[in-house]
């Protein structure tokens, strides 16, 4: 599986997500610009001693990532979707895309992929889940559907 963070802003969230990717064998893709340095101590601390277990890829833009993986399946998590994240089938190796903490995914991306948008249900009045929690929820559903390959 592939987890994509488009312009993440908070190093501790990215560190937590890196730890989740390490524990599940998912690849982590970070789309520039990042709101922090990858040398940030909060990023390193949140990832603990799992950094050697995660495969991290950096991309200059979402378009660069997409062009390099045109034949792959992409799903975009957004509060603006009508379909729940549990209502789709996630094939092995698909890309789970998440936006930055303060704004989510840009409309320019969402409008290109209207049939591939999913949401995590939350109560009215709540803006969203924490980014690292949202990644864990969707990633583990995708892995559950696949029988948790490679996990014990």
Description:
Helix content is 31%, strand content 16%. The protein is an alpha/beta fold and 152 residues long. It has a single domain (2-145), classed as 3-Layer(aba) Sandwich (Alpha/beta knot). Strands 3-2-1-5-4-6 form a 6-stranded parallel sheet. Helix 1 links the parallel strand 1 and strand 2 (27-31). The protein starts with a strand and ends in a 7-residue tail after the last helix. The model has no long low-confidence stretch (mean pLDDT 93).
In short:
By secondary structure, the chain is an alpha/beta fold.
Described by strand count, sense and barrel closure, the largest sheet is: 6 strands, parallel
Distance between the termini: 16 Å
Question: Biggest sheet, strands in spatial order?
Answer: 3-2-1-5-4-6
pLDDT < 50 stretches: none
Strand content: 15-25%
Write the layout of secondary structure elements.
Elements lengths: L1 E5 L4 H14 L2 E5 L9 H7 L8 E4 L2 H7 L5 E4 L17 E4 L8 H4 L6 E2 L12 H15 L7
Helix pairs in contact: 1-2, 1-5
Give descriptors for this structure.
Alpha/beta knot, six-stranded parallel sheet, 6 strands, 152 residues, alpha/beta
């Amino acid at each position: 599986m592939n987890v994509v963070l488009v312009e993440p802003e908070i190093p501790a969230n990215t560190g937590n997500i890196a730890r989740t990717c390490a524990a599940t064998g998912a690849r982590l893709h970070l789309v520039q610009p990042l709101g922090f340095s990858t040398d940030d101590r909060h990023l390193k601390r949140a990832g603990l001693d799992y950094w050697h277990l995660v495969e991290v890829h950096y991309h200059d833009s979402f378009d660069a990532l997409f062009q390099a993986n045109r034949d792959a399946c992409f799903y975009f998590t957004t509060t603006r979707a009508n379909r729940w994240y549990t209502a789709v089938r996630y094939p092995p190796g698909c890309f789970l895309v998440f936006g930055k903490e303060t704004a989510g995914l840009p409309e320019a991306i969402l409008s290109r992929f209207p049939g591939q948008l999913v949401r995590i249900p939350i109560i009215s009045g709540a803006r969203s889940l924490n980014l690292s929690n949202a990644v864990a929820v969707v990633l583990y559903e995708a892995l559950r559907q696949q029988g948790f390959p490679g996990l014990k």
